[in-house]
Design goal:
The chain is α/β, with parallel strands linked by helices. It contains 10 helices and 9 strands.
């Protein structure tokens, strides 16, 4: 009976979201403004975590400066929520005007040469809009190449199905984390080049190895699986540098990290990613996901380890 009730509730929720998605963008942003008031002033959603993360990451800033970043973070976070709902009903033309890319020629060239591409990404801006790179590529998804993204399946199967539907909106394929490498190797055996986005800015899962660097004033363990995949596949490695020029508009500049991963020492690719991500965040701190408890379990920087300035 409980499962039945859950199923009915979920169908009602998805119906409501689909109806909301038909609203014009300006109405979504009015709803976002209202949600901001509820989260920031009334519910104070994860305010302690956000305030603590900002204070530790930017000790050189005044409390007033950090409060401004905190407020802007919640505004951006609420925009992210409603912009993601809008994926249920948005045209390719609308998305192409709001989510722009540069440097796509770099990844297209590798794919045309039959080389896989590993793309480092992060929880900056609206990461759910990033799969629209297919609208900028000269290659056809599922025909010339496969556009993939790594994800962790949600416990709620219905919600998991909804998010997979949203993430496939522009022709990309979601690969479950625990099977991703095998899936990528299967594509390689079939002669299909792949470009795969890895969200690598969260702490490593329990038991997974981590590469420790100095990041945002913290010794920080970074996921190493992305680098391992890049090395084993001899992939072109890039970084997706996200900016938010104005409300409702994002841009990703694709930057080459390395075209020869095997020639770099172990950990070097991860360190380069951490350095680039730090530059992105320092340029506009409010677009990163500060509500994630990134430094819940402190780590120590190993002696003589290259650190991030």
């Amino acid at each position: 009976m409980t499962d039945g009730k859950t199923s009915i509730s979920f169908r009602l929720l998805t119906t409501m979201l689909k109806l909301m998605a038909h609203l014009p963008f300006w109405m979504h942003y009015r709803l976002s403004d209202l949600t901001f008031v509820l989260l920031y002033y009334i519910g104070r959603y994860r305010r302690r975590i956000v305030d603590s993360n900002l204070a530790a990451s930017f000790p050189e800033m005044t409390p007033r400066q950090r409060r401004r970043i905190c407020r802007m973070f919640y505004l951006n976070f609420c925009d992210y929520i409603f912009e993601t709902i809008k994926l249920l009903h948005v045209s390719d033309k609308q998305m192409r005007s709001r989510m722009t890319f540069s440097g796509v020629d770099t990844t297209d060239a590798s794919l045309r040469a039959g080389r896989p591409v590993v793309a480092y990404f992060s929880h900056c801006g609206n990461w759910e809009w990033a799969p629209s790179i297919t609208l900028w590529s000269t290659l056809t998804p599922g025909k010339d190449a496969e556009f993939c993204q790594i994800y962790r399946p949600l416990r709620n199967q219905a919600m998991d199905s909804l998010m997979l539907h949203l993430r496939s909106r522009f022709g990309s394929v979601s690969l479950a984390k625990n099977m991703a490498f095998l899936d990528l190797m299967r594509y390689r055996k079939r002669g299909i080049p792949t470009i795969t986005g890895f969200m690598s800015d969260q702490k490593p899962s329990h038991g997974d190895p981590g590469h420790v660097v100095r990041f945002l004033n913290h010794p920080t363990a970074f996921i190493t699986g992305t680098e391992t995949v890049a090395r084993r596949m001899n992939a072109t490695v890039v970084y997706w540098d996200m900016t938010k020029p104005r409300r409702g508009h994002y841009h990703i500049d694709i930057k080459l990290i390395t075209d020869s991963p095997a020639e770099l020492p172990s950990g070097a690719i991860t360190s380069r990613y951490a350095s680039l991500l730090q530059q992105t965040i320092r340029r506009n701190p409010s677009i990163w996901l500060w509500s994630h408890n990134r430094w819940k379990h402190p780590v120590e920087t190993p002696p003589c380890h290259p650190s991030q300035s």
